[in-house]
Amino acid sequence: MGIAAVGLACAAESDTSQSLYFPPPAGPVSVGKDLTETLTGDYQLAELDLAGCWGLNKESARLILGLREQHGVMAWIASSTTTGRGNGRGWVREITVKRTGERLSGNIHLGEIIGPSVITISLDTTISGTAISGSYTVRFTGKVPFGFVAAPETTGAVAGRLIAAKEPLRTDQHWPWHFGEGGSYRGPDSNCSLITDLALAKPVWKSEEPLGCGWGNNSSAIDFHATNNRGGSATPVVADGRVYVCHYVPARGKPFDGRGIKVRGDYEAIVKEWKAVYGEQVFPQEKVDDLFREKNDTVVACLDGATGQTLWRTTLSARFKNVQQHKWRGMNPSPTVAGGRVFVFDLEQHMAALDAKTGKVLWEYTSAKQRGAPALGPGACVIGETVTHLGLAGMDVASGKLLWEAKCSPWACSTALPWRDQERTSLILLNAAPHSPVMVQCVDPLTGKQAWEQPSALVGDNDLTMIADGILIGCAKQLDAKLNKQGEGSGGGGALIAYRLATDGMKEIWRWNSPVEVVDRVGMAAGTGRVYVSAFQSVFCLDLATGKELARADGAGGARNQAIWLADNRLFINTEGRHGGYCMQMLTSDPSDFRVLDPTKTMRGKTPAAHPEWDPPHAHTTAYANMGTPSPVVDGRMFMRGRDAIYCYDLRAPAKKP
Predict the structure, then answer these.
(1) In what order do the strands lie in the sheet with 646-650?
(2) Closest residue by Cα to residue 155 from 20, 58, 57
(3) Is the pTM of this model over 0.85?
(4) N or C: where does the chain have the smaller number of CB atoms within 10 Å of the terminal CB?
(5) Model confidence over 535-554: pLDDT tens digits?
(6) Does domain 198-254+293-650 have CATH number 2.130.10.10?
């Protein structure tokens, strides 16, 4: 059998109870050209509770549906039985649900990440006003997945409602770039009272916009049938009540590279092996081919912050090389929103500015003479009328005209941070050749004129260098090498170093060495005069001005490409940034009451002594050995990058009854 024989040819309503049916994953598809799409038509959310008969514990499950013009376009089973770190069954492969008059019915096909199983949920419900009632049936194709009732078909009652309108996000609350509201992984203060138990986080929406997974989810090409292709690991950003995300999609219609041609020729034997292991699965040909496309499309999408519906989508076709690796080592810069524009990069350092309201492409910059290393900075830094190109150049915000280019070593790891003193705002550039100390430059953002340049003791990734209250903080080499375990990553170091910035240079003011084990690197965030640093099994609160330890919480922390961030008197930790899992811990931020707020429904901790971790009930993803991926918290809502979409949770505590 040749490779072409494994193409998918099934009707949309195949009888899954009689035959194996494996529709291709519902995911992003290349449009093959430059295009800005404005999505129109009514979009509505529905919340349904599927009672009993769900998993071994016969638990109820929450189903959130998105309907565009009465047709199902989004489905989220918010249950840890189907999703979360340990389960990959929540991957939606196809939705045929639609509303016809007062009837809401159809199928949702869910697939496992690896394994010959498809779960089909069939809905048969009636709408009365906004109330929804009826029944559902769950059927399994192939082997019944672990954790479910071993019956070929189970049924249960459905009760729910159409949601007439969702509460909009405040338009004066922003997380406009990778670092948050400022430059130190801190969100805006919304004065919301947040929950004390992450297990009470309420699922609100899953984005209508499909995304490819991040690196670290797929360990081999065999996973393509369930997880789509990798689409980068950029963090979503939030501005003016909207959510912006940048990802990429293999460009169809483009030729395959030399490696792709060779590997595709080897697939006949590989497919036979897959069938022997996984049964008579059908592997869609286009998903195999997407692994080996030569180019990628850059896709930028704008979502409504209240509903997750796509407002507009812009595709920049075939702009850069298609990277489909498990352990890609370069960063994927997050978007930046400023002055009514969205600034995005691709992996070949092309830069584009889009209108934030419409998605119209305003300008592109593709002719940079100086290119940074694959370990790029977190994104564009905007100061006044200047936007930086990865700290290597400055462009005019309105026109994209090149204003200046920085002087630094070729293929430098570069990023840029804003520094505001009493008189002006300057640009701090961080440049280093691979495995070399970081050079720090202070330049005028409009002219690029250098005020000063100094070497530093900073090491590691530039997404762990930040500025707070005029102090530059970053990682330094741990003095006790036994406490700094280097894994597969770059090893950001287990120590912190702080420099006071001035108009004529910078001065080291303190160093802090972790007294406990660090795996690869720490996590770090700063705000309200404090620095928070997360080691493997301990989290510390330090005084920003002196480095003095103010508080310590043991049994919490993270490893490898962990990320930590601040919002509304809470400290959030993504405890491990590789291997596809995105579990979290939450702490109070007050040093006088510094403690872990344990979730009631959890994953186990990394060690028996560790505090438990929250396992969000959606399909997880990570950036692997690239950068931490914080989940912005704005107006009491958290926005998380998942394996197939953006997910929104409401963290606001219920109002107390009088």
Answers:
(1) 202-206, 646-650, 637-641, 633-634
(2) 58
(3) yes
(4) C
(5) 988 999 999 999 999 999 99
(6) yes
